[in-house]
Amino acid sequence: MISETEEFIHRFVPAKEETKSLTLLLLHGTGGDENDLLPLGRRLAPDAALLSPRGRVLENGAPRFFRRLAEGVFDEADLKFRANELADFVGRAAGRYRFDKSHVVAIGYSNGANIASAMMLLRPRLLRGAALFRPMRPFVPEQMPDLSGVPIFIAAGRFDPVISSEATEDLVTLLRDAEAVVSAYSVAAGHNLTGDEMEQARAWLLSI
User: Fold this and answer.
1) Which amino acids are annotated catalytic?
2) b/e for 85-99, b at 16 or more Cβ within 10 A?
3) How many CB atoms are located within 10 Å of the residue 132 CB?
4) What's the predicted TM-score (pTM) here?
5) Cα(124)–Cα(146) distance, rounded to whole angstroms?
């Protein structure tokens, strides 16, 4: 199902079985769209429902979820606005498509991973958990959120030319300080994703 309602162009794929309560919120990287991560979502959780919005910010024609001022320099005000906007959309989508909003796990890549991190810092109980590929710390919160017990998978590329290992480690430290249960992996790759980390993420998802 493709829709432009609720201010986000998005796709929703119902769960394969009505008894399956998990919904994956798929958040693409810069230049992606609502179709990009559908195969990944199906690979990670074959029976889950999939909610995949397109970022509403354009950077030289490329969709993103929030503005940045330069490579690795975020427009923090816009980031926080967009994170809350996306969180509200998830709540409305849960009502429309009748999925359990307490069982939503974000799957984010790069820009999508960063907006997912921001959502957890601003609305800490919105997501059941998150798998973040090539993320960095989006901002330092004024008040530490309570993410106690929230499972988070993080995968960083050791040879990533876009996001340094230090930038990802800053996020890992922040989330652990907020009492999240973080599973952090370093893979021999750049900004691209690998089959090995997909399998690690799939096993993690089955365990939460």
Assistant:
1) 110, 160, 191
2) bbbebbeebbeebeb
3) 30
4) 0.94
5) 6
Across residues 152-156, what is the average pLDDT? 97
Is residue 45 within 8 Å of 25, Cβ to Cβ? no
Amino acid at 193: L
The amino acid at 202: R
Closest by alpha carbon to 26, among 52, 57, 46?
52
- How far is the C-alpha of 154 from the C-alpha of 182, rounded, in Å? 7
Q: What does the buried/exposed string (b/e) look like for 28-37 if buried means 16 or more CB atoms within 10 Å of the residue's CB?
A: bbbebbbebb
Q: What is the CATH number of the domain that holds 113?
A: 3.40.50.1820
pLDDT tens readout for residues 16-51: 876 568 999 999 999 999 999 999 999 999 999 999
Domain tally, the chain = 1
Domain residue limits at 61? 2-207
